[in-house]
Amino acid sequence: MDNGGLILLIFLAFLFAWGLNRLRKMLRLGPLAYAGVMITFVIVVLALYTQTQR
Question: For a surface tag, which of 1, 24, 38, 51 has the fewest beta carbons within 10 Å of its beta carbon?
């Protein structure tokens, strides 16, 4: 993945965080659930990124 792919990944992460914030307000999730979803997302993105680097 080149720089374009990394920029796209960062853009998707911001989009995901924005959407999750709206969802959190609708569902009234606590900060623990919010952190859990974010950590899971980061792990998945890093796993995908390392797979594409091989």
Answer: 51
Cα separation of 47 and 15, whole Å? Answer: 19
Annotated domain spans of the chain:
3-53
HSE-up (13 A, CA, CB side) for residue 49:
17
Asked if 20 contacts 37 with a C-beta cutoff of 8 angstroms, the reply is yes
pTM, to two decimals: 0.51
Sign of the CA dihedral running 7, 10, 11, 12: positive
Is the pLDDT at 17 greater than 60, yes or no?
yes
CB-based contacts of 29: which residues, under 8 Å, 6+ apart? 23, 37
DSSP class of residue 28 equals: T
